[in-house]
Structure formats: C-alpha cells, structure tokens
Amino acid sequence: MRTSKYLLSTLKETPASAEVISHQYMLRAGLVRPVASGLYTWLPTGLKVLKKVENIVREEMDKAGAIETLMPMVQPADLWQESGRWTDYGPELLRLEDRHHRPFVLGPTHEEVITKLISSELSSYKQLPINLYQIQTKFRDEIRPRFGVMRGREFLMKDAYSFHLSQECLNNTYQDMHSAYCNIFERLGLDFRPVIADTGSIGGDASHEFHVLADSGEDDIAFSDSSDYAANIEKAEALAPDTERGAATAELTKVATPNVHTIEDVSKFFDVAAKDVVKTLLVLGEHEEGETAPVVALVLRGDHELNEIKAEKISGIAAPLTFATDEQIKAVANCDAGSIGPAGLAIDIIVDRSAAVMADFICGANESGYHYTGANFDRDIHNYKVEDIRNVVAGDPSPCGNGKLTIKRGIEVGHIFQLGEKYADAMNAGVLTETGKNQTLTMGCYGIGVSRIVAAAIEQNHDENGIIWPDAIAPFKVVIIPMNMHKSHRVQETAEKLYAELTAAGVEVLFDDRKERPGVMFKDMELIGIPHAIVVGERNIDNAEVEYKNRRSGEKSLIAIDEAVNFVL
Ligand code: ATP
Ligand code: MG
Ligand code: MG
Ligand code: MG
C-alpha cells in the first residue's frame, strides 16, 4: 500500500474528548472516527487490525470445534418476550418498530435467536453437543459510552453458544472454550488473566471473565500473590464474608435487593424526601457546570437492566424520567468537589448492585475525575473512603487459603458462562433422548469483545510516541520510509525496489511515498505503530545499505539492501 493512495488520516493534536490513551491514539493514528456517542467508523488502518483480531478468534474457535454461523442483528420482540428478557433486560436494549408497528430489538446478545434455532433444527440427542458461534455487531444502549470503542454502543462481539444433554458434557465444552480463549489472548500477545466471575442474578453455575491487565480498566480483579487464584473482585469478596469489606457487602446487599426498588425506599435510605428526588431529576437538567446550587443528583447509571425496573417505578411519580448525561454528572460533581453538605450532594444509586460494585464504582468515579463525595455512603452505610475500599480487599487473606490478595485493574475482554437450562426451558428447546423422552437442553455461552480488544491491546502496547502493535495484529508489518525521495532518484529507485520485493513476498508493507519531510513521516509511522521500519536514505545507499528500525525496542541497525527483505520476513 502506498500512502499516496491510502487514507492515512493521522492527527497531530490529541482530541480533548479522549480520556484514555487507547482512545487518543485510535483517533490520532486514524483508526476510528466517531459518528455519534458510542458509534464509530473504522478507517482502513483500524479495520485491518480489527480483522486480524477477528481472524485469530475465528481460527481458535474453529480449532476448538465450534461452527460459524451468522444471526441477524435485528431481532423480533416476541423472542425476547418468550425468554422473559423483554421486561428484564432494561434500557440497554434498544427497541424499535417496523412500518407495521411490529416491535423489534437491536441484538445486544443472541441467546434467544440461537435457542429458537436449536429448538427447531435439532430433534435427537445424536446431534449433540453442538457449539455455534458468530462474529456479529451488537448494540447496547450503554448509559455511559466511553473510552472510544472500549465501551461503545455498537461493537463487534464473537459470541458462541453450546448445547448439551448433561452437565458433564457442558463442563467439557466449557473447558475447551476456556483453553481456546487462553490461546486467543496468547496469540494476540496480550497480558491477560482468566478470573472467576460472579454469576450474579443468573446464579449457581460456573463463569469466568478474561481480563487484559491495564490501569485504565473499569474492573478490579483480585489475585493471590502465591497461588493461581484470580477472581473478579465481586467474587473474591463474596467468598470472604467475614472480612470487613465482606460485612459491608452484606450490609449494602440489604439495600440492594430487588424489593428496595421503590422511590420510598430510595428516599428513606438516602434520607431525602421523595419529592426532592423527583425534583432532582428535573433540576439536574438545568444545572450549569461550576454552579453550587443545592442539588440532589439521582444519577441512575451503570449498565443496567434493573435501571428500567427503577425507571418504571420511579416514573410513576417522576414522569418523564430521563437519565443524567455525562455532562450533567460532571456538572453536579463539580459543584461539590471536595466539599460536602449544602453545596450539593451527588448520590449515585445503583440499587441493584452489590457493595463490591458500589465500591468499584466509587473508585472508578474518582479516578475518572468525578468527585462523588460519598457523604451519604459514609453516613448511611459505612465509613469507607475510596482508598479504604481498595485496601480492605487488598491484603485479605485470599479465599483460596493461599497467600494474600492484591488488586489490579482489568479490561473485560471475554466472558464464558454456564447458563444451564434458563433459555432452553423458557423457549422449549429439547431433544429426544435415547429412551425416547423429551429432555430440555443445557447451555453455555461464550463472548469475546473483538472491537474492545483493539483498544485493550493499545492500552498495553504504547509509548509516548504512539502505538506499538503486537506483531499478530499490526495493520502493516513493515513501513518503507524514503528520505527526500522526490529529490533523489536513487532513493526512489531503492524504495520502489524494496516495496516490490516485499509485496511479492506477501509482506504487508506500507510505502510512505508522500512528499513529506522525514520528521513528519517518522512521527506518523511511530504513531501508527508499525513494528518494522526500513529507512532509505542517500548516504546509506552509497554503502548499498538501508537503516532498519524496530518500533518496540527502538533499536536501529544498518542492513545491506539485498538482505533487507529477508531481514524483516
Ligand atoms: P461490561 O462489564 O464491560 O459492561 P459485559 O459483562 O456487559 O461487559 P458481556 O455481556 O459479558 O459484557 O459480553 C461479552 C464481551 O463483550 C465482554 O466481555 C466485552 O469484552 C464485550 N463488550 C461488552 N460490552 C461492550 C461494549 N459496550 N463495548 C465493547 N465491548 C463490549
Ligand atoms: Mg455491560
Ligand atoms: Mg461485565
Ligand atoms: Mg461480562
């Protein structure tokens, strides 16, 4: 590829909207462009990386015996009514109508469609087990899309669904998927950890998340310092109920059970009159950044299914209910930064979540620059400050009994789950067994955030000059940088020759044939993060040499022009 015939689209300035490094570099290196909140166009360079991630995922899924399929992104509402998630899923589910006023959803996940398919396609135990996957665009109307494609509203996911007659059979496939995921993240060259995950409301069965370690991650994960134990922090904590933080969990869980989802309970808990809570939602919209008006902010946020339940209940009193926007949250947060009391009160109610998540949230909120002062948490719940919350967990003995726990931040890039009979039961998916009886299927589901991985990889692989791609997912393997090619015939000739040879050898090579100063070219190519650079200059040609530069190590060396192709192969 020649840059003159390509869409390079690099930016010199860091866009102000981008908080984390991967988002900044994805914009600056010309990988993506925003279209609307949480919606992105993948530019050619970004798409090359995305496709590479996708292919590694595909190859390892195929190797593990999963079969590729493709389901529609738009799904009829009746499937969701059948599974019960039409009411349970909440506002992340984008609902729409066709011209005949028939309701549809944009698929945030595909359990319903696949279970329906299986129930009609399979009839005999002989067809089991089966594991089907797809790589498909999902839509989740995230309340706070952020960090670029890391938490988009439209994103690319690999999702697989396996069906079985026995728990034992499900366990086997689950293990196969666990191994396939490890292979995938190893091939991607990422520092990752599988962690035991909380199965939450679905309950009971096994679940693991795969986290890429990075400070910008939104999740806390707990490791034992002397065993393999690693768990999502909610799980680690649930296993250690007699710790201080465990006790706090129990306390908060009391207010976090579904029966407190009423405006009265919320207002009682926070000692705020119900009508004020209502008012808050209205005042919030008018609040200016920097103002110190006495504001109570009821910020409904998080991912959350149950927001809708709350929304329904609250909207009885407070219709129309709107969720606070990012700007509004910031405005409220700014009005009481550091000081509590009459100036204002930012209350974040995640009624449906555990204390651990609440703690997580407080940490996250502070780190992202929002000051949730925690006055109410302190008074009504316990006296934890952000640091306390982290410290209480770190240094608890590890639930596995081995060593102490340390906490690190992680980006959830994969999640595998034993679903049991939940969907098969609701949607009548069964087959005839050997003895002719109809038996409900047992199911597992396995997700990977393909587009999120691109951002996560950058979080782990960059320096102050830009991205440093792991070889496996680099958009180009080699870049040819000719110095002042338009002034030197010899440089042009040599660069063209190398370009032709590399192309013929099947190497993905970018030839920077722009009429730019060498400095501009170097900066751009470092920003884009191409692993190997060949610099062609007048002086080195005198010795029949070119300069080689390695993006990761920064190491430079002179190599004979004749050996350049073999050198980078
Ligand atoms: P999160 O906790 O980050 O909201 P999740 O637990 O809701 O993710 P899953 O339902 O487990 O997500 O989906 C499988 C995978 O899809 C996740 O592990 C993650 O890698 C990816 N994913 C989920 N939501 C998003 C998003 N909004 N943008 C990009 N990738 C996402
Ligand atoms: Mg989510
Ligand atoms: Mg999650
Ligand atoms: Mg998950």
TrEMBL record:
Keywords: Aminoacyl-tRNA synthetase, ATP-binding, Cytoplasm, Ligase, Nucleotide-binding, Protein biosynthesis. Its EC number is 6.1.1.15. It catalyses: tRNA(Pro) + L-proline + ATP = L-prolyl-tRNA(Pro) + AMP + diphosphate. It is found in: Cytoplasm. InterPro entries: aa-tRNA-synt_IIb, aa-tRNA-synth_II, aa-tRNA-synth_II/BPL/LPL, Anticodon-bd, Anticodon-bd_dom_sf, Pro-tRNA-ligase_IIa, Pro-tRNA-synth_IIa_bac-type, Pro-tRNA-Synthase_IIa_type1. GO terms for cellular component: cytosol. Gene3D superfamilies: Anticodon-binding domain (3.40.50.800), Bira Bifunctional Protein, Domain 2 (3.30.930.10), YbaK/aminoacyl-tRNA synthetase-associated domain (3.90.960.10). GO terms for biological process: prolyl-tRNA aminoacylation. HAMAP family: Pro_tRNA_synth_type1 (MF_01569). NCBIfam families: PRK09194.1, proS_fam_II. This is Proline--tRNA ligase. The gene is proS.
